[in-house]
Each structure stands twice: as C-alpha cells, then as structure tokens.
Amino acid sequence: MGEVMKSSYEGYRILLVHAHPDDETINNGATMALYASLGADVTLVTCTRGEEGEVLVPGLSHLASSHQDLLGAHREIELANAMKALGITDYRFLGHYRDSGMMGTDQNNRPDVFWQADLDSAARELVNIIEEIKPHVLITYDEIGGYGHPDHIQAHRVAMRASELATWQIQKIYWNTMPKSVIAESIAKMKEIGSDFFGAETADDLPFAKDDSLVTTLIDGNEFVQAKMDAMKAHETQIALDGPFFALSNNLGLQVWGHEYYTLVKGNKSAPFDSAGRESDLTSGVQL
Prior knowledge:
about 290 residues; N-acetylglucosaminylinositol deacetylase activity; hydrolase; metal-binding; alpha/beta
C-alpha cells in the first residue's frame, strides 16, 4: 500500500459495475480489498451471472449451458466466496439479465440476454442503486469493454448512461485499463521461461492493452494480492489453477497482480501523484 493513502476511508463510497462474476477480481480485486479494509463502502454490481462461461473444472462440466444450464447459480456461489475473500459485503446483480455469450452466436440473439436489453431500462435499474448508495467513485470498462465481449460493452454503456440519468452526481469515473508496457514486460518474462501470455507475441496482439499515456491512476494493492489470489481461486469454474492467470503469478511473482490501472474519464486528476505523474488514490479530490 502506498504511503500516500489515507489512514481511513470511512465515508467514501465506491461503485464497481462488471459484466460477469470473476471480472471484478481479475480487474479490481486488490483495489476493492484495499479500500474496503480502510473503511470505504465498496459496492459491486454484476450485470449477468455468467451462464455462458466455459467450465474449466471437468467434474462440473454438467453445469454448462450446453448441458444442464446450471452454471449461473453456481457462479453466484463462487462470487459470494470471492467477495468474502476480498472483504466485500455489498454485492448484487443488476436484475436478471442472462449472459450474452460471444458476438455472432445463437445465445447472443436470445431476448433475455444483457446485450439485447433496452439501454435506458437497464440503466434505470442501475440508477436506483446509484441513488441508494450515492457513490463518489464509479469503476467500469472502456467503450470496447476491454476486449469486445458484448456484456462488457453493454456494462460500459449502462454504467455511463446511468451516471448521466442519476440525480446523484458521481464525482470521479474510471475505466479499467492495462498499460502496454506492463503487458510487454510480462510477455517477455513468460517467453524467457518457455511459456506464453494468453498466446500473444506482442502487446499489440491484445485488445485490452492500452498506451501508457492513457493510464491516469495506479493503485498499489500489493498488500492485498493474497486476498485477490484467494478470490480468483473462488471462481473455480472460470480461472484454472494451471491456467495463464496463475502461471503469471507463479512465474513472475504475486506482485504482477498487485498493481491495478485506471483511466480517469470524469473528474479532476488530483494529487497525490507517483513518480510517473499518476494518481495513487481513486478518491483524491473527492468532496465528502
């Protein structure tokens, strides 16, 4: 944890809007655990239950949508266990939207999937939560949802639209990001040991890799990496213990998951800054 962090964040309220259970842990697990541990009210809204996710545990393959279609209920349990690991008590789903699957699939055309939801109707559901909890900070995806998944794109649209419709004005809005320099370093180190980084040769192969200049904020959550790893393990059907996420930490060290990066898209970039001129606190400049 950076020395510039306040000793207490009691009274500060942070809202995260994600597409599926596990997205919150991969993108923001250390950030969530850090702020919650220091007294901030952290609320997670997950837009779907991830019913179309691939099941990576052979013994649970019957849960898949192509079999018994019970994965959504199981991922609710995984999410609850992950939130316990991160110390988050306020987590909820945005209505009953179904996972949309990938673009061009039959699942994506179902009328009950999140991608097919009316934007303003879904946004108004989120507005109700915003008016209830009155967040100072909102975290969600960029306009391509990080990597183009329809539920991620829709989560971005719904979050941004809700922030416009709400009477309560959110002071700072951030989009998750991952700087190319960090990804390039990870690719190089994985190549050194004869492995790969999600099959990518260079950072330019990955849609979620962004120019470093877009990173306005770096949260140092290294003290909470173990909590993040425990939360990732809780999402057992989605994050394989022998898969790329754990391979990264096994080979590069846990700190690879301790730094989480953001782009500020609403509000003023505010001190304190790190040596690279990036914010080191999501709530800097927020008026209580």
